[in-house]
Amino acid sequence: MAEDFNTENNQEREIDLIDLMGRFFNWLGRAIVQLGTLCKNVVLWVIIFLIRNWLLYACACILVVGLTFYKNTKPPYYDCNMRLECMCANASYAINRVNGWNYKIGLSDSISKQIRHVDASYLLDYNGDGNADAVEEYNSQAMKDTTSAYTRMRMAHTFDINVEIYIAKDSTILDSVRNAIMAYLYDDKWIQEQNILWQRESKNRISRLDKEIEILDSLQKKEYFSKENKKLGVERDGSFLMISEKDKRLYHNDLISLTNSKLSVEHKLYDEPFKIIKDISIPVNPINTVSRNVKHSFMVVMFFATIAILIFDRRKWIKSLIKESKETKE
Question: What H or E segment, with its residue span, contains residue 155?
Answer without folding.
Answer: strand 154-166
